[in-house]
Amino acid sequence: MPDEPAPYRGRFAPSPTGPLHFGSLVAALGSWLDARAAGGEWLVRIEDLDAPRAAPGAASDILRTLEALGLQWDGPVLRQSGRAEAYRAALDLLARTGATYPCACSRREIGDGARAGIDGGLVYPGTCRAGLPPGRAARALRVRVGNAVIRFDDAVQGGVRHVLADDVGDFVLQRADGLCAYQLAVVVDDAAQGVTDVVRGADLLDSTPRQIFLQRLLGLPTPRYLHLPVATDARGVKLSKQTGAPPIDRARPGAALAGALRFLGQRVDAELVDDRPAVLLASARARWDRASIPRARSALAPA
Ligand code: GLU
Fold first, then answer.
1. Which atom of ligand 1 approaches the CA of 12 most closely?
2. Would you say 195 and 211 are in contact if contact means Cβ atoms under 8 Å apart?
3. Cα-to-centroid distance, 115 and ligand 1 (Å)
4. Helix, strand or coil for residue 78?
5. How far apart are the CA of 172 and the centre of ligand 1, in A?
6. Closest-lying ligand 1 atom to the alpha carbon of residue 24
7. How far apart are the C-alpha atoms of 217 and 81, rounded to whole Å?
8. Tens digit of pLDDT for each residue in 43-98?
9. How many other CB atoms are there within 10 angstroms of residue 82's CB atom?
10. Rounded to whole angstroms, how far apart are CA atoms 182 and 159?
11. Which of 73, 95, 251, 276 is deepest in the core (most CB within 10 A)?
């Protein structure tokens, strides 16, 4: 009997802060190709958790661009703005097991004397770990990382090992504004959507150990991970709307897809660039080669 192919469900999870640009296209295309080449499903989740940061119309603009490029998704689009109850349930579960504690510290208070962590954030010094100081009210909820050491193998970036207490410290799960933190929302949503494979930018590589830690606390499965190099400008800064990355031109889908494919180290059939995007994508899917993806956390975007 032939081996059953392993089930694969991937996803693209853009934050709707602006239109799709080259950097976010790389994540969309890389995750789409990896899923489709494995015969898997590909979901889209709009990470509009932080409603004030979401740009009006950005989510539908991103979806229109994905459609114009032929990056068709499966099933309904999940929006984090409608998921408050699921996040609440996860926070309650963690609170019941004593995994979290309320924290009264402001950013400024933490800043005095705290070390910088692995991703530039501050390592929480543990001020409120044993209880709130007298007269202080809770602002945020943090999770106790204890002596957790998290290891995982990334399909492109290789082995990663974090000692959470040294690298990030007890991190925030519920922010002072009451919103669920990104780290927890992603874990809850990936599990709820049955995601087996997370393919995303390597700017999130250092978030992954925290997410694996939360999966274990919540008894959720850990997906496989593949972190793609992040596209930067000439100064080495990640492309983003803030740094002026131009939106993908929906009128020239072939050029956009070809640029992203080359960035991912994939061969491009030049004759197909002016064809319908579905034709170029079918060829790219057949040729998709993980081993050709540059093993770097970042790379210069084409001019
Ligand atoms: N929403 C995140 C971003 O746009 C991606 C989160 C993820 O892929 O886990 O950077």
1. 8
2. no
3. 26
4. strand
5. 17
6. 4
7. 24
8. 999 999 987 778 889 999 999 999 999 999 999 999 999 999 999 999 999 999 99
9. 10
10. 23
11. 73
DSSP letters, 20-64, are -BHHHHHHHHHHHHHHHHTT-EEEEEE---SGGGSPTTHHHHHHH
Scanning the chain, the segments in alpha helix (DSSP H) are: 22-37, 58-68, 84-96, 107-111, 164-167, 182-192, 208-218, 253-263, 277-287
Strand-strand pairing, 140-143 and 9-12:
unpaired
Pick the atom of ligand 1 nearest to 207's CA: 9
47 CB less than 6 Å from ligand 1?
yes
Return d(Cα 224, Cα 31) in angstroms, integer: 12
pTM of the model as a whole: 0.96
Nearest atom of ligand 1 to the alpha carbon of 27: 8
| CA-to-CA dists, residue 129 to 93, 99, 124, 135, 296, angstroms | 18, 11, 10, 16, 37
Give me the residues of the chain with pLDDT under 70, please.
1-6
Distance, CA of 14 to CA of 49 (rounded, Å) = 11
199 C-alpha to center of ligand 1: Å? Answer: 10
Residue 146 Cα, ligand 1 centroid: separation in angstroms?
A: 26
CA distance 123 to 151: 19
Q: How far apart are CA 2 and CA 114, in angstroms?
A: 56
What is the distance between the alpha carbons of residues 303 and 239, in angstroms, rounded to a whole number? 12
Pocket test for ligand 1, best of 43, 186, 212, 224 (most atoms within 8 A of CB): 186
User: Is residue 198 within 8 Å of 11, Cβ to Cβ?
Assistant: yes
- For each of the domains in the chain, give its residue range(s) and CATH number, in order of start: 9-82+193-205+220-300 (3.40.50.620), 85-182 (3.40.50.620)
Ligand 1, residue 190: give the atom nearest the CA. 9
Q: Is the shortest distance between the CB of 200 and ligand 1 below 6 Å? A: yes
